[in-house]
Amino acid sequence: MSVLVNKNSKIIVQGFTGSEGTFHAEQMIEYGTNIVGGVTPGKGGQEHLGKPVFNTVEEAVQEVGADTTIIFVPPAFAADAIMEAASAGIKVIITITEGIPVADMVKAYNYIQNKDCRLVGPNCPGVITPDEAKVGIMPGFVFKKGNVGVVSKSGTLTYEAADQVVRQGLGITTAIGIGGDPIIGTTTKEAVELLINDPETSCVVMIGEIGGQLEADAAKWYKESGSKKPIVGFIAGETAPAGRTMGHAGAIVGGSDDTAQAKKRIMRECGIHVVDSPAEIGKKVKEVVG
Amino acid sequence: MNLHEYQGKEILASFGVRVQRGIVAHNAKEAVDAAKQLTQETGTSWHVIKAQIHAGGRGKGGGVKLAKNLQEVESIAGSIIGMNLITPQTSATGKKVHQVLVAEDVYYPGDSEPNEFYMSVLLNRSTGRNMIMYSTEGGMDIEQVAEETPHLIFTEEIDPSTGLLPFQARKVAFNLGLSGAAFKEMTRFVSALYKAYVESDANLFEINPVLKTSDDKVMAVDAKVSIDDNALFRRKQYAEMRDLREESPIEVEARAVGLNYVDLDGNVGCMVNGAGLAMATMDLIKMAGGEPANFLDVGGTADAKRVEEAFRIILKDPAVKAILINIFGGIVRCDRVAQGVVDAYKNMGDAIKVPIIVRLQGTNAELAKEIIDNSGLAVHSAVQFQEAADKVKEVLA
């Protein structure tokens, strides 16, 4: 088992023929991901990287049965790409694009609420189920197969955590990069819930950062769920000053309850194994899974 | 991107939001001219002189004063312009004031008492919708109101598919206890304010106070406006309002070369790929006994040119006693980054006088370590995150 993506996912790439889309599509295909085609408006009918190009997502759904998409469309047009995918019946919409205007995401987020789909991101590294599907921009070799699920707002910090877990002789079921923007489709709580409910996952690593309430919400849900699966948590940004945006548009301390300290306190109260040092994530996982 | 009060008010006024009128002045003479012009246009006899800096609490620091005649306008403007204004939101050294807003007096006596309210428009991150937050307790620190009298703060969330509806604007005006002409004014004010927020791609409007005047007008007396950086590409007229004097010169320079840099107070500089890992690295520096001197995300391409640019930016801060480079190479190969570090180091010659710790992990990490170790440079290399922390401790000791 795994969550969100697996070897049977039929994946298309939106922004397929652009430089980012091309580069990462190649990497995904090389990994063995089931890429069934791509979408670039105006280039329908062509072939790219040996896969068909479609003008619209709807065509891709009809012609090749696409159910999952990864979006590399530039920021100004990315929200539209998300809504197009949702409208065409795509079930999992993974958005890599960084820098989408918040007002566009307010619109897109609201639009997809009544559609049968799940948005992951934007501004995220994607989702990987090792040995099955890499639907993202992460280095595939870091993620060895195993039983630890990873949820993270950050790209390289996800790779760091996965690497530490693998160095302990363990592996990953699915790693979900949820993204660092103020509005994201899949929250920490939703991603943690998916992994807690996955029978193959025996432990979850939850990596957050300053700003917003997502980690606190996830921690409270975990406590209420009564789950016995251990969660190891880390929050980046203990040393970040208040009121400054730290790289990720959503990483900004707005009040007293979204600092790293406050989040870690809530997580500990809810039974999460919180590490203060980012160098100890792997060690702590090993300790709790025995 | 944060704006000055006068710029925020310009934007509000362009969408039909009533604002306290004012004119910007850069010296005492301009202030007197501005005051004369305002008297002609508005009939005001008194003027408020307001320092224009990017920080709140200006009144508490002596940056907002009432002038009752032109001599006072001249002397007050003269004393505020050029001062280092220290407020609860600035650093201990304060911020230099380059300009003041000479504004009309709007607290004149009349048929009813003037009344101050609080109003802001912002994103509710948990619902993905914009909301209007407002309170009867205007002119005060809203955090304090939230703590002491939370029942006096109201919120109205807006459905993006319909926009702010008339009944919502009425609800705001009712909750603020208004009636008659002032009630109508407030509903217009709220509607115009929300329209301005959406159409300017703002990510924060904070109007404190919103004033109901003694003759029942409703207007913004102050305006804290921030525009979404990601939307500046389609809001060029606002992008031009950026005042670089309000930002750290190093941050301005870093942005010009495409580096995401935030200046901090510590002694260990860092250069990292990815925002989350960069924050985690800062935290690790602190655990190792240092204090981070900056946040710096070099992004996806850490080649020699970029590494060199990053070095130059970090070294501009004289407090830096050591530099930690932490790169997790995924798509970027670590050996390339290592070569970039070596080349940058050689190019910069004697400019680098502090110890450097390089931690490269991921694709070709071992090869990268070899390149660093064999370079003959005074660079400490590490592969594991913990090793990097230990090295930081070592060089600071």
Question: How would you describe this structure to a colleague?
Answer:
- The complex is a heterodimer of chains A (290) and B (397).
- Chain A folds into two domains: 11-120, NAD(P)-binding Rossmann-like Domain (Rossmann fold); 138-289, Succinyl-CoA synthetase domains (Rossmann fold), CATH 3.40.50.261.
- Chain A has 290 residues and is of the alpha/beta class.
- Chain A is built from nine helices and 14 strands.
- Chain B contains 13 helices and 18 strands.
- Chain B has helices at residues 5-14, 28-42, 70-80, 142-148, 166-175, 180-199, 236-239, 249-256, 275-287, 304-315, 334-348, 365-373, 385-396, and strands at 22-25, 47-51, 64-67, 84-85, 95-96, 100-104, 115-124, 129-135, 153-157, 202-212, 218-220, 224-227, 260-263, 268-272, 294-297, 322-329, 356-362, 379-382.
- In chain B, α12 links the parallel β17 (356-362) and β18 (379-382).
- The radius of gyration of chain B is 26 Å and the shape is elongated.
- Classes of the chains: A alpha/beta (290), B alpha+beta (397).
- The interface between A and B is large, with 60 and 55 residues.
- Chain A: One of its GO terms (biological process) is tricarboxylic acid cycle.
* Total number of domains of chain A: 2
Structural class determined from secondary elements of chain B:
alpha+beta
pLDDT < 50 runs, ≥5 residues of chain A? none
Oligomer: heterodimer
User: Fraction of residues of chain B in helices?
Assistant: 25-40%
CATH architecture grouping of the largest domain in chain A: 3-Layer(aba) Sandwich
Overall number of domains of chain B:
3
Write the layout of secondary structure elements.
The complex is a heterodimer of chains A (290) and B (397).
Chain A: E1 11-14, H1 19-31, E2 35-39, E3 47-48, E4 51-54, H2 57-64, E5 68-71, H3 75-87, E6 92-95, H4 102-112, E7 118-120, E8 126-129, E9 133-136, E10 145-152, H5 156-167, E11 172-177, H6 188-196, E12 203-209, H7 214-225, E13 231-236, H8 260-269, E14 273-274, H9 281-289
Parallel strand pairs in A: 1-2, 1-5, 2-4, 5-6, 6-7, 10-11, 10-12, 12-13, 13-14
Antiparallel strand pairs in A: 3-4, 8-9, 8-11
Helix pairs in contact in A: 3-4, 5-9, 6-7, 7-8
Chain B: H1 5-14, E1 22-25, H2 28-42, E2 47-51, E3 64-67, H3 70-80, E4 84-85, E5 95-96, E6 100-104, E7 115-124, E8 129-135, H4 142-148, E9 153-157, H5 166-175, H6 180-199, E10 202-212, E11 218-220, E12 224-227, H7 236-239, H8 249-256, E13 260-263, E14 268-272, H9 275-287, E15 294-297, H10 304-315, E16 322-329, H11 334-348, E17 356-362, H12 365-373, E18 379-382, H13 385-396
Helix pairs in contact in B: 2-3, 5-6, 8-10, 10-11, 11-12
